[in-house]
Amino acid sequence: xxxxxxxxxxxxxxxxxxxxxxxxxxxxxxxxxxxxxxxxxxxxxxxxxxxxxxxxxxxxxxxxxxxxxxxxxxxxxxxxxxxxxxxxxxxxxxxxxxxxxxxxxxxxxxxxxxxxxxxxxxxxxxxxxxxxxxxxxxxxxxxxxxxxxxxxxxxxxxxxxxxxxxxxxxxxxxxxxxxxxxxxxxxxxxxxxxxxxxxxxxxxxxxxxxxxxxxxxxxxxxxxxxxxxxxxxxxxxxxxxxxxxxxxxxxxxxxxxxxxxxxxxxxxxxxxxxxxxxxxxxxxxxxxxxxxxxxxxxxxxxxxxxxxxxxxxxxxxxxxxxxxxxxxxxxxxxxxxxxxxxxxxxxxxxxxxxxxxxxxxxxxxxxxxxxxxxxxxxxxxxxxxxxxxxxxxxxxxxxxxxxxxxxxxxxxxxxxxxxxxxxxxxxxxxxxxxxxxxxxxxxxxxxxxxxxxxxxxxxxxxxxxxxxxxxxxxxxxxxxxxxxxxxxxxxxxxxxxxxxxxxxxxxxxxxxxxxxxxxxxxxxxxxxxxxxxxxxxxxxxxxxxxxxxxxxxxxxxxxxxxxxxxxxxxxxxxxxxxxxxxxxxxxxxxxxxxxxxxxxxxxxxxxxxxxxxxxxxxxxxxxxxxxxxxxxxxxxxxxxxxxxxxxxxxxxxxxxxxxxxxxxxxxxxxxxxxxxxxxxxxxxxxxxxxxxxxxxxxxxxxxxxxxxxxxxxxxxxxxxxxxxxxxxxxxxxxxxxxxxxxxxxxxxxxxxxxxxxxxxxxxxxxxxxxxxxxxxxxxxxxxxxxxxxxxxxxxxxxxxxxxxxxxxxxxxxxxxxxxxxxxxxxxxxxxxxxxxxxxxxxxxxxxxxxxxxxxxxxxxxxxxxxxxxxxxxxxxxxxxxxxxxxxxxxxxxxxxxxxxxxxxxxxxxxxxxxxxxxxxxxxxxxxxxxxxxxxxxxxxxxxxxxxxxxxxxxxxxxxxxxxxxxxxxxxxxxxxxxxxxxxxxxxxxxxxxxxxxxxxxx
Length: 1002
What we know:
Elements: H1 2-16, E1 38-47, H2 56-61, H3 72-83, E2 91-93, H4 96-104, H5 108-119, E3 123-125, H6 140-158, E4 166-169, H7 177-185, E5 190-193, H8 198-206, E6 211-215, E7 224-229, H9 261-276, E8 283-291, H10 297-313, E9 321-325, H11 328-338, E10 341-342, E11 344-345, E12 353-355, E13 358-359, H12 368-391, H13 396-412, H14 424-452, E14 481-486, E15 493-501, E16 505-509, E17 515-516, E18 518-522, H15 525-528, E19 539-547, E20 550-558, E21 595-599, E22 603-608, E23 614-619, E24 622-634, E25 660-661, E26 667-672, E27 676-684, E28 687-694, E29 700-706, E30 717-725, E31 732-736, E32 742-746, E33 766-768, E34 771-775, E35 782-787, E36 791-794, E37 800-808, E38 824-825, E39 828-829, E40 832-841, H16 849-859, E41 863-868, E42 890-899, E43 902-909, E44 919-922, H17 924-929, E45 934-938, E46 951-953, E47 955-956, E48 965-967, E49 975-977, E50 986-989, E51 994-1000
Parallel strand pairs: 1-8, 1-9, 2-3, 4-5, 5-7, 6-11, 10-47
Antiparallel strand pairs: 6-7, 12-13, 14-20, 14-41, 15-19, 16-17, 16-20, 18-19, 21-22, 22-23, 23-24, 24-25, 24-30, 26-27, 27-28, 28-29, 29-40, 30-37, 31-32, 31-34, 33-36, 34-35, 35-40, 36-37, 38-39, 42-43, 43-51, 44-50, 45-49, 45-51, 46-48
């Protein structure tokens, strides 16, 4: 009511003049500048975390202000009211999640006023995704999704004037090259951020290199993106924070002794002059805002109005400083107009350190179970989106349920969500939000599968506790169960499926009634011992399934022979103090041997009999000595009063002393079947592992179980898995950038500067979203590790790779969260379970394309649905497009409902230029199967016609710019209709290229 009361005097006039046809947005709405002056672009903004110290709703509604004073709804109320008072004022809005929630609550009159502000360029959306995503732990698929969501909401609500043109990544803790590439592919002109290694920042300040051209891809042409680092974080200049959360003096311009105009103007002009020495252009950008500011925006704008007035009045006295309200897009427009040249950037901005002892590399792993849960959310989201598209689910509830999962997944990408840097209460709320959205979205999957198969009454339940080998649907019996497998990938795939079952004999058949070989293996006893795990099922049924898109498999329990104890598998035994036996085994044949071998047709593993440890891996024609173990870093504990007393915490990885490698002998049991062979290893009371190989699968699986990490001795611990080989890697290793291109790393080195390596372990840690690898100089031997969630990783010695799996710490690191990273569940430390996959190969003989293909299956394996049935069910293939003729390197990145009569299709060539080549294929049959009438091509996000893309092109140092240049589409975008010839549906993809289409189907 207070907000509406403020607007009453304005409504009568403003509503009369809200003429959409006269709207001027874009660069025409940018402020006038002055030649031969320092033009200062003041950018009012509020950085509003979508959860951190408070939950999403607590931040929005302004609850729990004893934790942090913040209420986003009041910020937006206040800002809109103040913008309406003066057409020169500007404000940028970043997080669409908060804005859309607020906008939906407004009256039609207020919504019309907001549209007027947008259409006049006074309220500008910057970034525009659902949240300001992290850049280390996120996967590119989820980043693209949350930008598509945010930008579509803005486009549907306001039209083209709301489209952001700038990435505004001011708070993430390091910056990825792939994020820059995504901005470029969406048609953004540039991006700005606020965090950079403290040594690099000093060097760039000295060398006028704060702004640069980032070559965001080694494979994609036209991938350059202008990138700028903000001068002083994202805060207002010292002394000029006019917000109610600050205590800086206002500008007093009365005729009194308190008048401070001269000193305030002097201070600001001196600040600008100093700042301008670090920038090449005669334009500088000064953010005016901070976390959750502008709750009483009248105070902010009234003082900024005065600042602008009095600074500019100095020009008659010879001052060369010109100040005005602006936006990042207007600032970058002016830089483009100047046709200057800029330095080059090719790698990324990881790891980020804020001082000599504070490398922000701990959050790469923090909250490992939540990082995995986010991946599960994405897995189901891609599954449900595709199923909804196939079945044309369009009713209101189906749309709401799908949107809810999209939105929560957008929240999960936030730089204090997937990072694990939020308070524990907020982490639980994220889990609640994602759980609720997953449960509701499963209804969509059920609705679709009842249409797409002949199991019209199938339950199609998902088992959400498979991470502890539990499925409620099979808890009592797996008899007469149909397992429906959905393959989110484009190509048919053969994968092994594991279903929690009781110890019975089973028959598995496919849709045609053909028997599928299967076997039963025991669940590790350490998993059975997890507190509150129901132990009805202590085994898993394993079978190999081949699936195009959807396939059904029927499980039946066979009657047990009388007076017979059923063997689980034909196995041999090697037990060293294992606490319990779960199956009958036969004695080992080679008793007394120094080694034992576990092998199938593709992989041979050699273990040492005495220690139980892996010794050698033989696969892909390469044999290499590889020792795998676990190691523990002690987390540093300090009072954080000085850099050298920094604690290891949610953000910071700072070990205290050398790593402790677990070198004791390992208790183990070996299980051998025809399809799967497993070595169950027990390292200590809280670390165990299963080393596993499947017949026909060319990788080794390491399924680890860690926790509760003990803290009885008041020591925090950070647990890593290490793989030691004899490969001479010469300090070089490779990590992925958000699951896409690989980046070359060199130990103790950076691209642009000499880093401070006081913290030698954490200073060499990098984010590993999907893959880390090393190889010898000739490429004869290469080891790659693939993971199932984001983690930190490194190569701290030649031939060695390590991934951090779990962390439990006892001190806060004093970077804002205010809590130690001490996760608990059921009254004790958190237990985490996950998988790492190893591939040994020779790059000289083959490219790393095999790793890419494996990475696809690890990221999006089959999703399992369970139903009861007395008979096997069939799939209706006529309703599902056939993607199998895509070239091997082409993936179906996205297929989803876009509107009530449109679908979004996104395809990618996921090989880079060293692994693949240009490919072409035709999508006419897909278009037809989906009922297409029209198809049009868009930018990556799906919300702007690709033909409309016109992106600023900046010039590298050493070039001689003669005219303004732009990036446009290098090819003719597809825009075709059902009546057109099939040749109009041909798609060509360069390595790493993604193309996005909107298909109108009715």
